[in-house]
Amino acid sequence: MTSLLHLDSSANRSGESVSRQLTSLFARTWQTVHGPAGYRHRDLAADPVPPLDTAYCTLGRRVEQHGTVPPDAVAALVADPAEERAWALTRPLIAELLAADTVLIGAPMYNYSVSALLKAWMDRVTFPGAFTDPATGHSLLRGTRVVVLSARGGAYGPGTPYEAWDFQSPYLRAYFGKQGVPEENLSIVSAELTVSGIVPHLAGFRPQAADSLAAARAAVTALASETARPAGSAASRSAAH
């Protein structure tokens, strides 16, 4: 069974959130193709991931001293109740991510990068050794597909005056690439000029905004309709075991 982990990171939980509109479209389309059984949704605004603390850092350092430690073995290295709580918050998020064939991320651009809600999730799941196969040293995410759906109030695409201000897409590509997700398994779709409908000085860009949203919706539908799983995906790994 193929599986989808759907993460929303917009602080705006109303129907006005464009990133949530796009992730909802993807999720509905994906479930039409694959069925609802493998679908899981995590709303990082409704249930925020706590920022890292001393216990997380101390436990992480201890794990690193032991080389590559699989998540199932980390509990044996916990030294006190604070570390136990830190790991109890972290382990389910890692397991949830590793179980997914596709990870869908709603990522509005906040101050030229990702939201603090998404950054907290990324920081916590990136625990030492969490994504490394101790037997081979390969990334456990090498077969995972990641789809990022971004909403941006302005225009930051290639050729725009603010192209160099886009620290979001390069950051996400660098992050997931470092975790072992191949470039061909990472898709980033952006709807731009999303505030042109409400900000007076951007009113002249409303046609471009409508075109950008329409293109994003078409790309989302196409990506969600794909039925092929990347080699080494979570489902494939489970079947191999």
Number of helices: 8
Radius of gyration equals 19 Å
Average pLDDT, rounded to a whole number, is 93
Q: Report, as a whole number of angstroms, the end-to-end distance.
A: 14 Å
> What characteristic shape results from the CA principal axes?
globular
- At the fourth level of CATH, the homologous superfamily is Flavodoxin domain
Portion in strands? 5-15%
Overall number of structural domains? 1
* Helicity level: 40-55%
SSE string, helices as H and strands as E: EHEHHHEHEHEHH
CATH fold title = Rossmann fold
Q: Kindly report the spatial arrangement of strands forming the biggest sheet.
A: 2-1-3-4-5
At CATH level 2, the architecture is: 3-Layer(aba) Sandwich
Biggest sheet, in brief?
A: 5 strands, parallel
Which consecutive residue ranges, at least 5 long each, have pLDDT under 50?
235-241
Could you give the count of β-strands? 5
Structural class: alpha/beta
Class, according to the CATH hierarchy?
A: Alpha Beta
Quick structural gist:
By secondary structure, the chain is α/β, with parallel strands linked by helices. Helix content is 41%, strand content 12%.
Fold and architecture overview:
The protein is of the alpha/beta class and 241 residues long. The chain has a single domain (4-240), classed as Rossmann fold (3-Layer(aba) Sandwich), CATH 3.40.50.360. It is built from eight helices and five strands; from the N terminus they run E-H-E-H-H-H-E-H-E-H-E-H-H. The protein has helices at 18-34, 54-65, 71-74, 81-98, 116-125, 168-178, 206-225, 234-240; strands at residues 4-8, 39-43, 102-106, 145-151, 186-191. The protein has a five-stranded parallel β-sheet with strand order 2-1-3-4-5, sandwiched between helices. Helix 6 (168-178) links the parallel strand 4 and strand 5 (186-191). The longest helix is centred in the last third of the chain and has 20 residues, at 206-225. 35% of the residues are buried. The model is unreliable at 235-241 (pLDDT under 50).
